[in-house]
């Protein structure tokens, strides 16, 4: 996402330079990927030449006296094209030009406190024949960066959950909060005509996928090119200017983050707006001139007879603004993010509007964005705004969260006062009453106290959060774990492959697999519709695996995992076979039950019907499945090796050294009966600097002697406080070889 620094400063009043702003944004979690238009040092300023004199000691040099907005400065210049009265760029002492820093210098006996620059030295062209002559409009004493390079553009990586930052106002709000300052929107005052918008247009809202829809009617517009300042801002951010009406909608979206759309009112049948889901497929032509096939259930904006826009994605050609447009309907709405995402994926297009709607927009600023756009259109086109706003739907209620200050401190590893947390959250637009926190409507990503802890951590500053030792408690392993491993080993020995599938499924999959649909647990925030329910059987997942492997005739797979109903979650085992292997499923179950010491009747097994195979798109003549409730039968499974049930152990950790290890190789000859583990233990015991020892060679040969072997190791020596010298490393190796010789009679090879 690209931002103009000058646009940010419309809201964020600061004297910080670009690098400081970029540093703050990165620290707050929005990484600055690039800065363009910022190659000219800000210390390079425009100066006016007020006097030129010959250099007393050099024929080809001159002395130029310039005014930098505060004082007169004399410097040495060799450019042949300078004249009194010119405005030229000067690099002050301490500024950087190309790859060097400007210093005060004495040139042929005359002190020079700066440097007049050529276009090549500014980096704007290859011309170095003389000083760069600036336009008279360039202000003396000001940095020439913006004048020569245009505005500075920040390219930020905005995470998908932060839709509130996809605008200049939203990012400025983040920067202002960091400084503890309030950010005020400009007041919008509209001059409305006596004619009512309610009489000019009606809205029929037929779907819950559009919770809010607002419209204004603007008459007598004059469609024309936008002014230069507006075009410049759009072009610097990659948007193509079209006309004053369309450009305003794009400008307000980049300014406030809310997508808008303008319809030619006279192209709407009966001056009506209908928001609905399509009942049948149809083909339309979008504003980019491409014919697109819309499917049923997509949300569209229509006029009662035809679609005129794909909701939240793109308008259609049949209602576009053109040179003949006189009256317009200006739309500002809120659409369901999941619906927009699904439509966008099906159509294979992504627009600036869909990008924002997918991430959630600020419902509280919809009216403000609409009014600002209406005001700009009226000012740029001489139009009149009809009285009132036509509205359907309501703004959602703000979310309320408990401020769990103790939990937040525990999560962050801090001791932040609750009052400090409240100060941070208040600066971010949250309202606090006691322990209740009311989330601003623009923060769609905040719904839990853990989300509040993230906000507190970001603005408290991660640098203030000290280092704390992490306490880790190792746990003993239960016998159930090893019993499950025993089941897996038994099935693998019989030729089966283990699968691990998602714990989600769709209602359709549950119905096809003949599962209890009424007992499914619904996920409140599914990633997609296909993952709306928690599985109550492993069978559907196995069938999807078989369906996705059509080239294999005989498939033998199983899965052990959790299944869920509205009361409990349980461990389950499911087995599936296809082709010839399906005929052998009963024998597999019999062998497994014998091995596990459970009754064969514990398994429920069946063959899939032709309808089920067709529904799962399985092109195999036979598929058999079986499943068992493991929680019920695990206690009956025998588990012999009780030694594997380890008790909790105390584990110690050491910091990772900042200094690189030194690698040494050691080859020794020892008796064959000496085990590798004995040698490793002795090496680490004899040298605390030996942090890693790797065996890389071992062999026996007549040339070595009888009953002996050669064994070689890589030994990594490391110190936590410094880099070891060669001498210190050799001392450690001597200690190691002496210890091995004393303990095992080892000889160096």
UniProtKB/TrEMBL annotation:
One of its GO terms (cellular component) is phenylalanine-tRNA ligase complex. It is found in: Cytoplasm. This is Phenylalanine--tRNA ligase beta subunit. Its EC number is 6.1.1.20. GO terms for biological process: phenylalanyl-tRNA aminoacylation. It is an enzyme of class 6 (ligase). Belongs to the phenylalanyl-tRNA synthetase beta subunit family. Type 1 subfamily. It comes from candidate division WS2 bacterium ADurb.Bin280. Binds 2 magnesium ions per tetramer. It catalyses: tRNA(Phe) + L-phenylalanine + ATP = L-phenylalanyl-tRNA(Phe) + AMP + diphosphate + H(+). SMART domains: B3_4, B5, FDX-ACB.
């Amino acid at each position: 996402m690209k931002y103009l620094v000058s646009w940010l400063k419309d809201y964020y009043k600061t004297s910080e330079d670009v690098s400081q702003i970029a540093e703050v944004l990165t620290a707050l979690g929005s990484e600055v990927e690039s800065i363009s238009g910022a190659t000219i040092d800000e210390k390079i300023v425009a100066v006016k030449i007020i006097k030129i004199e010959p250099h007393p000691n050099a024929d080809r040099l001159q002395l130029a006296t310039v005014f930098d907005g505060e004082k007169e400065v004399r410097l040495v210049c060799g450019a042949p094209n300078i004249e009194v009265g010119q405005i030229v760029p000067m690099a002050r002492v301490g500024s950087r030009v190309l790859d060097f820093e400007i210093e005060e210098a004495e040139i042929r006996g005359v002190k020079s406190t700066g440097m007049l620059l050529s276009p090549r030295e500014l980096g704007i062209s290859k011309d170095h024949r003389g000083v760069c002559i600036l336009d008279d409009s360039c202000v003396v004493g000001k940095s020439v960066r913006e004048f020569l390079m245009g505005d500075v553009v920040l390219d930020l990586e905005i995470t998908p959950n932060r839709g509130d930052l996809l605008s200049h106002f939203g990012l400025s709000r983040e920067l202002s909060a960091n400084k503890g300052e309030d950010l005020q929107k400009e007041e919008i005052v509209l001059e409305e005509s006596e004619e009512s918008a309610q009489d000019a247009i009606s809205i029929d809202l037929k779907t819950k996928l559009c919770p809010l829809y607002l419209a204004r009617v603007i008459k007598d517009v004059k469609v024309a090119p936008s002014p230069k300042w507006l075009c410049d801002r759009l072009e610097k951010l990659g948007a193509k200017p079209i006309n004053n009406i369309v450009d305003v909608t794009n400008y307000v979206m980049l300014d406030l983050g809310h997508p808008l759309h303008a319809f030619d009112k006279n192209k709407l049948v009966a001056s009506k707006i209908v928001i609905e889901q399509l009942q049948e497929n149809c083909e339309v032509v979008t504003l980019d001139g491409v014919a697109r096939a819309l499917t049923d259930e997509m949300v569209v904006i229509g006029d009662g007879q035809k679609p005129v826009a794909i909701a939240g994605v793109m308008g259609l050609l049949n209602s576009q603004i053109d040179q003949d447009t006189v009256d317009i309907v200006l739309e500002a709405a809120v659409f369901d993010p999941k619906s927009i995402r699904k439509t966008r994926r099906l159509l294979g297009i992504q627009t600036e509007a869909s990008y924002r709607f997918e991430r959630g927009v600020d419902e509280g600023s919809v009216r403000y964005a609409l009014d600002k756009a209406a005001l700009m259109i009226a000012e740029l086109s001489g139009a009149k705004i009809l009285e009132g706003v036509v509205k359907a739907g309501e703004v959602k209620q703000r979310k309320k969260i408990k401020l769990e200050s103790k939990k937040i401190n525990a999560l962050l590893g801090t001791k932040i006062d609750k009052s400090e947390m409240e100060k941070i959250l208040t600066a971010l637009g949250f309202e606090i009453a006691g322990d209740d926190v009311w989330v601003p409507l623009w923060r769609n990503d905040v719904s839990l106290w853990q989300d509040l802890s993230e906000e507190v951590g970001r603005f408290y500053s991660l640098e203030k959060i000290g280092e704390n030792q992490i306490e880790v408690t190792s746990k003993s392993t239960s016998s159930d774990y090893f019993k499950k491993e025993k089941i897996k080993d038994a099935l693998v020995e019989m030729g089966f492959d283990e699968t691990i599938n998602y714990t989600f499924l769709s209602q359709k999959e549950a119905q096809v697999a003949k599962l209890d649909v009424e007992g499914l647990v619904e996920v409140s925030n599914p990633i997609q519709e296909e993952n709306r329910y928690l599985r109550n059987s492993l069978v559907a997942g196995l069938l999807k695996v078989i369906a996705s492997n059509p080239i294999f005739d005989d498939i033998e797979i199983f899965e052990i995992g959790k299944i869920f109903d509205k009361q409990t979650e349980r461990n389950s085992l499911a087995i599936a076979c296809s082709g010839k292997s399906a005929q052998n499923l009963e024998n597999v179950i019999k062998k497994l039950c014998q091995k596990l010491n459970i009754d064969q009747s514990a398994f429920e097994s069946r063959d899939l019907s032709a309808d089920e195979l067709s529904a799962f798109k399985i092109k195999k003549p036979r598929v058999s499945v079986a499943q068992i409730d493991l929680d019920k039968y695990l206690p009956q499974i025998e588990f012999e090796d009780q030694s594997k049930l380890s008790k909790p152990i105390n584990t110690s950790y050491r910091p990772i050294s900042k200094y690189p290890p030194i690698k040494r190789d050691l080859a020794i000859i020892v008796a064959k009966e000496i085990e590798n583990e004995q040698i490793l233990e002795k090496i680490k015991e004899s040298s605390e600097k030996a942090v890693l020892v790797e065996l890389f060679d071992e062999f026996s040969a007549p040339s070595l002697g009888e009953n002996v072997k050669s064994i070689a190791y890589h030994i990594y020596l490391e110190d936590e406080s410094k880099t070891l010298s060669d001498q210190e490393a050799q001392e450690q190796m001597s200690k190691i070889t002496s210890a091995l010789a004393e303990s095992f009679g080892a000889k160096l090879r």
